[in-house]
Design a protein that fits this description.
Blueprint (H helix, E strand, L loop, with lengths): L4 E9 L3 E4 L2 E3 L4 E2 L4 E4 L2 E2 L17 E5 L3 H7 L16 E4 L11 E4 L2 E8 L4 H7 L4 H8 L4 E7 L1 E3 L4 E6 L7 H8 L8 H7 L7 H11 L1
Parallel strand pairs: 7-8
Antiparallel strand pairs: 1-4, 1-8, 1-13, 2-3, 5-6, 5-12, 7-11, 9-10, 9-13, 10-11
Helix pairs in contact: 5-6
């Protein structure tokens, strides 16, 4: 049986730069040519401006499915950000699997590294500002086209043009789409038992476990 996999279109990094007023952000990432080192906290050469809400072990690497780009282009025709990978600040531009196919706790090979799905990305105002629009964040919350965060289980090296193959799936009932809709999209009101279960899952990033605990209270 063939294991599910994603194809890597690009691997991207960026350092903090002026973004809005006195705010800085590393959301503007660019593709890397050749192999890139993957450390415990993410890609070598990748930076974080807001260390409270970004970075750390549970948010080491951000993937955004390129499968969504056509959908976004239909809604934002001719937007230049959608002409190339990196529109959503992703480190991995992949195709082949989306939030409905990827589950919490999934482990993938990423070159010689191994990464584990920790949670989805909770969108913030920076996406609206980056796109020059007021609806990007709200649209992501509504549709669960959120992207994926990984923690690094084994350090290594990877490059674009290769595949991320699924190695383990301990929680097949917990797609990132489902988790996102429960904890970010308002679905907790209709399934409190699921939220209580998420609060006890060690695979879920601590910030989202804490959110689940508060929503279940």
């Amino acid at each position: 049986m063939t294991q599910p996999f994603m194809t890597i279109d690009a691997l991207l990094i960026g350092m903090p730069r002026p973004f809005r007023d006195d705010e800085h952000s590393a959301i503007g990432k660019l593709p890397v040519a050749g192999p890139i080192r993957i450390n415990w906290l993410g890609f070598a050469g990748d930076g974080v401006a807001d260390t409270v809400h970004h970075g750390g072990w549970d948010k080491a690497i951000h993937l955004y499915p390129q499968d969504h780009y056509g959908w976004w282009r239909d809604r934002k025709p001719d937007h230049p950000l959608l002409d190339a990978p990196g529109a959503f600040g992703e480190n991995i531009a992949s195709r082949g699997m989306t939030e409905s196919d990827i589950c919490l706790g999934d482990r993938f090979c990423l070159g010689s590294a191994v990464v584990e799905v920790s949670h989805g990305r909770q969108p913030c105002w920076k996406l609206d500002h980056r796109f020059g629009a007021r609806d990007v964040m709200a649209t992501i919350v509504k549709t669960a086209r959120c992207g994926i965060y990984f923690r690094v289980i084994r350090e290594g090296e990877a490059e674009a043009g290769t595949q991320m193959t699924l190695l383990e799936r301990p929680l097949p009932d917990w797609s990132i789409e489902r988790v996102f809709r429960l904890l970010i999209g308002g679905g907790h009101k209709g399934d409190p038992d699921a939220v209580r279960a998420l609060a006890e899952m060690p695979q879920l990033a601590e910030a989202w476990r804490e959110r689940a605990r508060k929503l279940a209270a």
